[in-house]
Amino acid sequence: MKIFASKTFFLFAWPLFLATIFNPLHSKEKIVFQHSLEGFLADKLTEITDTFNKQQNQYQVTLVYGGNYVDSFDRFIQKEKRGEKKPHLLMVSEFNTPTMALKKSSYLPVHTLISRDENDLLDVINAFYSFEDQLASVPFNCSVAVLYYNRDLFKKVGLPDRAPTTWQEVEAFSEKLVNAGYKGFTTAWPAAYVFEHYCVVNNLPFAEHNNGFDAPGYESTFLLDSPLHIKRLQKFRDWQKIGIYSYQGQKTVEPEKFFTDGNCGMLFQGANRYSLLKLNKPAFQIGVGAYPYDQTYTNEPFAQNVCGTSLWVTTQQEPCEGVKVYLQYLMSLDIQAKWHQLTGYLPVTKSAYQKTLASGFYEKNQPASVAVQQVLRERKALPNGIRLKDYAPKRQDLMDIIEHVVLGKQSAKVALEGFVNRYRK
Questions:
Q1: How far is CA 110 from the centre of its chain?
Q2: Are the beta carbons of 233 and 417 closer than 8 angstroms?
Q3: Helices (H) then strands (E): counts for the chain
Q4: CA dist., res. 11 & res. 26, Å (int)
Q5: What is the separation, in whole angstroms, between the first and last Cα of the chain?
Q6: b/e map of 60-76 (b: 16 or more CB within 10 Å)?
Q7: What angle do CA 79, 85, 88 make, to 5 degrees?
């Protein structure tokens, strides 16, 4: 019997033993996470994911770059249509959030999978990513708009060492920069910085039904053909003519380089881009301020709307227990605080904010402090965000319209009226 037992072990256990030695991931449950981060930010995501993979031996998270936010989401949709295997986790941008939320067969609501303190998420973030008062996805790399300025250039032309707090000051500061031979300011993602953030910070309507929050099926008509929005876009056209504004494309690289090369005094961009701006090695110190409000409409700014992404658990033929464990890890206090401090993205939980505050981090990291304070403001009448079904292609259309107007190819009135009529419900 002993001999038989030994032979049996050799025949059946030995191959498994060899497989374990030469394939250490053999017994691990594999999780595929499709994301859209590049460079520095992708490195930091890899760093915290590697820590997760090494600290336990049951699950292995594999990060897969799916392209930018638009391309990655489109690839996911195409995989579904073709019946192909999907990633377990999908990073979805804020402008595709309502579209994803309506695809109820495509995901598992995160509130059914992980436990959390419902009061711990920052209020603005919780409101944006909750549907029917239940959290649908895990807010992760969330950011807000800020105003970067060239401190050395401000000093050179006689401006105070602070960012302008109102749009009236943005214009006045820019005029002084233009008189000294520079451009005033530029922006990334014009749809966001010309309209989206402007409407939220000033509590102005962007679309019907509370910017889409209250509409059945999240269908709403845009309200950008009103006199105030037309005036807003025409102002950018006028500013472009005299150098107060300098259009540098629709994305991130060109506007950021224009700023870090010293061509203009101010840049509107996300708070999480601070570390990336410094990688361009500007020959000046960068200052940071909040996204300005307009004194025409309010005496104080309203809470800023979040941008960035959240993580969605996709439906699979076989449920993956490791996804729950990984998400709990990402939402843990230490990882939330670390992710915030490493990247400049918001701490999505109040406890991570308090931990970071107690550490003294904000005293030495002004951009992170400015970003957080903008979402800690009291929420007002309108929801702090834009939540519209199928907004991604419409947003691209809006950016094209802004480009045409500021470059003098079309009037603001004709362009915005045409845009609204194209998508009128």
A1: 19
A2: no
A3: 20, 12
A4: 19
A5: 80
A6: bbebeebeebbebbbbb
A7: 100
Retrieve residue 193's tokens: 């910085």
What token pair was written down for 367? 């951009």
Residue labelled with tokens 């233009």: 178
Q: Assign residue 291 a region: left if phi > 0, alpha if psi is -120 to 50, beta otherwise?
A: beta
CB atoms within 10 A of CB 346: 31
Residue pointed to by tokens 């995989």 = 79
Rounded to the nearest 5 degrees, what angle is found at the Cα of 303, between the Cα atoms of 185 and 138? 105
The pLDDT of residue 218 is 63
**Contact in structure between 62 and 31 (CB atoms under 8 Å):** yes
What pLDDT is attached to residue 367? 85
Please state, in angstroms and rounded to a whole number, the distance separating the CA atoms of residues 396 and 203.
23
Secondary element (H or E) of residue 264:
strand 264-270
Beta partners for residue 245, in sequence order: 185
Report, as ranges of residue numbers, the positions in the chain whose pLDDT lies below 50.
1-25
Give the per-residue SS3 of 138-162: EEEEEECEEEEEEHHHHHHCCCCCC
Beta-bridge partners for 349: 121
pTM of the model: 0.88
Within a 13 Å sphere around the CA of 138, how many CA atoms are in the beta-carbon half?
27
Q: Where are the alpha helices (DSSP H) in 243-346?
A: 253-260, 274-279, 321-330, 333-343
What's the token pair of residue 27? Answer: 């017994």
Buried b (16+ CB within 10 A) or exposed e, 159-170: beeebbbbbebb
Q: At 331, is the secondary structure helix, strand, or coil?
A: coil
Is the C-alpha dihedral spanning 40, 308, 391, 92 positive or negative? positive
Q: Starting at the edge strand that comes first in sequence, how are the strands of the sheet with 145-150 ordered?
A: 183-187, 264-270, 145-150, 286-290
167 token code pair: 């749009």
Residue 4, number of CB atoms within 10 A of its CB: 8
Domains and CATH numbers, the chain: 2-143+308-372 (3.40.190.10), 145-303+390-422 (3.40.190.10)
- As a whole number of angstroms, the distance between CA 31 and CA 49 comes to 11
